[in-house]
Each structure stands twice: as structure tokens, then as C-alpha cells.
Amino acid sequence: MELQLTKEVLLAHPAAVCLLSSLLSFVVDMARITCALAFAALAAAAPLITRQDSDHTQLVAPDGPTEYQISYGPRPYYIVQNMTEGPLKDKLMSCENGPFSVSGWSIGHRGGGTLQIPEESAQSQEAGARMGAGVLECDVAFTSDLQLVCRHSLCDLHTTTDILLRPELAAKCTTPFTPANDTSSATALCCTSDITEAEFLSLCSKMDGSNSSATTPEDYQHGVPSFRTELYDTCATPQSLNGFIDLVDSFPGYRNFTPELKTPPAQVPMPFQGTYTQEQYARDLINAFINKGIAAARVWPQSFLPADVFQWISEFPEFGSQAVYLDEEGDTPETFTAAVARLPSLKAQGLNIIAPPFNYLLTYGDSNNDTIVPSSYATTAKAAGLDIIAWSFERSGPLDRVEATEDYYYSTFAQAVSYDGQLYEVLDILANDIGIIGMFSDWSATTGYFANCFGLTGPVGGSYYNSNGNSSSSTDNSNDNSDNDASSSSNNSNNNGGWPNWE
Hints:
Elements: H1 7-12, H2 14-45, E1 48-49, E2 68-69, H3 75-81, H4 87-93, E3 103-108, H5 122-130, E4 133-142, E5 148-150, H6 157-160, H7 167-170, E6 175-178, E7 187-189, H8 197-201, H9 217-220, H10 241-250, E8 256-261, H11 278-291, E9 302-303, H12 306-315, H13 317-320, E10 324-326, H14 333-341, H15 343-348, E11 353-355, E12 362-364, E13 372-374, H16 376-383, E14 387-393, H17 422-434, E15 438-441, H18 444-454, H19 486-490
Parallel strand pairs: 3-4, 3-15, 4-8, 8-9, 9-10, 10-11, 11-14, 14-15
Antiparallel strand pairs: 1-2, 4-5, 6-7, 12-13
InterPro entries: GP_PDE_dom, PLC-like_Pdiesterase_TIM-brl
Enzyme class: hydrolase
Keywords: Glycerol metabolism, Hydrolase, Signal
């Protein structure tokens, strides 16, 4: 017999309504209990991280379930699936279910979520941390009231924030917005030094980009590279250096810091306002961490200026012992040769960590430009006793475009790459042939997955500073692969004397 629960039946039998309601309530409750048990089982099986007692000299492994889980999302799996069949792909596929944890080898460039989220923002830091970056970056600039903030360049506010949409702040820009016309592109130049810290923190961070054809400040806001996205371009939060320190220190898993002292451009002559010197600027960066009680072992200060690095080595030897010299002095064949030649002298002056763009470290391995091997820069740096950190992964978009667009990061071996699976081939040479101790990335999941699969932990804080107060090379880098065949591979670095090909 078929039961028809019509409106008339229900009105005629109120007891039936009560019985039906109770039955539905019981079913819902049982469903909730079943779901709760299922999620609990998933949580127990998931690789999670926890806050533990530590001196912060080394990132700690997970120890039981907590509320914070490392998450890589689909991109690493997309890259692996796109790889050519072989041992490297097999190895990376074997890691697809983890366990995954924080790795100091994975360094969050401008936060680590920069591929999709406005750079230097709190949201980019949070994304990089969630993707397991063990070291997070703040590029340090100064404001008109001499406060330190996170911004990749002192003078990029016109492309990385909404300052041009704030008339009272746009009026303070070094070069106010000028619309495009028949003969000229739209222009503007807005610097952190044009405004106060409070004014800077009132801005919205946005994806870096500008529209050179714009005739209004609103139109000028666009122009993000096509391989990025404006999906999360919804008023991200800018950071002061102090705020960055507090945020990173709050992340589970013990993240460390790599602040970069930005070199002031010509539009911001030093001493700023006649009194604020480069030396004081460098001093203020270190003092910010000291004032926050952050141990030197957790801080990897960076600069493109050797004078900054050697000042830190002299004035703050614990911090200076793990200072990172960012080397971009080898962008032509002639300057590349000179950059390689001076590496031993940098080590002799007390430098322990060199950080070139990763194209400096790689070159073609055969006359057909089909293979990639370590360059003379890589082998010379290792022979000199320098540890190497490289920059910056995931800034270039799909690899099938890098040769046509003359992308900077692939300029020394662009003909040898043409599909995205080769991203992990490139990382494999950098990590397992050369033995770099860390990689900056705009999408920390990509480097984090690789680092976890190969057990790469990154540099060990405090290992560069001995008890006598002297700077010395780390002797405990678990991913230092100096015993591998990197040096022998470099002997096949084409017929170009060992430096990368330049087209």
C-alpha cells in the first residue's frame, strides 16, 4: 500500500506530524554524528603541525594533531602529472600522500602566495605559511617618518597599492599620475618615503600591475600578467616590519624570517632628509628583530649591497654570520665572468651565503641546447665554501612561453624547457646536483612539495656562528649535496667556458 502524505492527511492527523518530525530529527542527528566521526578520522590521519618547545634553530616536525594543517592544493600534482616518465617523476609521485610539513628549504618570496595574492601583504604571508614555507620574506622599505614597512621597492606603490585612488595620498607621490596620450604612456611614481607609516598601512595592497594606456587612475590599476590572477585582489593588508614579525612569529610550525633591505632608488637620495643614512637604515632592520626578542638564529637578512652585508657581519655578528648577499652582478657574459671570479674573495671576507637568480646556476649541457647542467657560478661558489640560496621560482608563467618572451629566469637555458613538468627537473638539478640550501618561490606549495619529498630542510639557524663569535660556514646542512656529481656535470657545460649561454 502506498502512503500519500497529502496536506489533508497531515491536517487530519496531527499525531502523525509529530511522529514524522521526530523521525526526521533522529535521521538528521545520526547524519551529523556520522559526519563528525568521518571528519575526526580524516583529521587523525592528516599530517598536521603543532607548536612545540624549541630554540628555533631548526624547524620541528609534526607531533600529533592540532588545528593547523599544511595544504599544497592542486599545483604540485599538476606539475608531477605533466612530467616525462622516469625516476624523478616516480619519486615525486611516491610522495603524493605526504606526510607534509614545514620546510625551511621553501622560502616564501614576498610572502609565498605572490602568484595569486598581492605581494608583501598579510594574506600572502598567510598563504605561504599554509603552504609550508619555513622562511617568509619581508622586503624592507622606509616611510617619510622613518618607520620600516614591507614593500618590494621603495617606489612601487603606484603599481602595488591603490594609492592613486586616494586623492589626499596621491597628491604626495613623487610623480603624480599623468594619463596616456597619443605620444606618451601613462606614468606615476609613488614611494613609501612619500607618506607616513600610518598612511601606508591605510592603503589596500593589490596585484602588481599597471595599464600604460590608462587615461584615469582607475584604469591604471589593471595590467596584471596573464598567468597571475585578480581573484584575490580585494584590498589585501599591507604590513609594517613590526607587524610582519608578529604575524610570522604567530604561525604554527616555527617559521623564520628573511628581511631584505631594499636599495633606495635614485628618486630617494641618501642620506634621506639629509640625515637618515644607509648605515642607520641597515642598523634599524636588525634592531627591529632585537627589539622583538627574536633570536638571530631565526633571521636571514638580505641585501643587494655588499656594504650592508659586511656592516651586519661587523656590527651584528650573530645576524651577519647568516646574512644573504643577493648577487645580480652577472647579467651579461662579461659581468658573469667577473661575478664568478669574485666568489672566493666574498667568502674570504666573511660571507657565508650567496643568493643569485637561479638562471646564474644553470646552463646548457650539450651543443644542441637540449640538456641543463650546473654552471661555473654554481661549482665555483660550492668550491669556495659558500652556501647557495636561489631566487625566484614561479615568477615566469607557463614554461612553453619562456623562450619566446625572453624570460629572465630561464635566459641561460630557455631552449631546454618547453612544458611545466620541467619545473621539477630544474629544481632537481638545483637541489640534488648543486645542493642549494633554499629556494625563494612565489607559490610555496611548489617548492614545499619537492622539499618534503626529498627531505630538504633548509639552512640551520645558528650553525654559521661559533662560540668564539666568528662567522663560519654551516657544517650541518642536511641537503648539502656537495658529494654528488655536480662538479663532474659542470665539466660538460657546453663549449662556453662554463658560464651560461646568453642569447
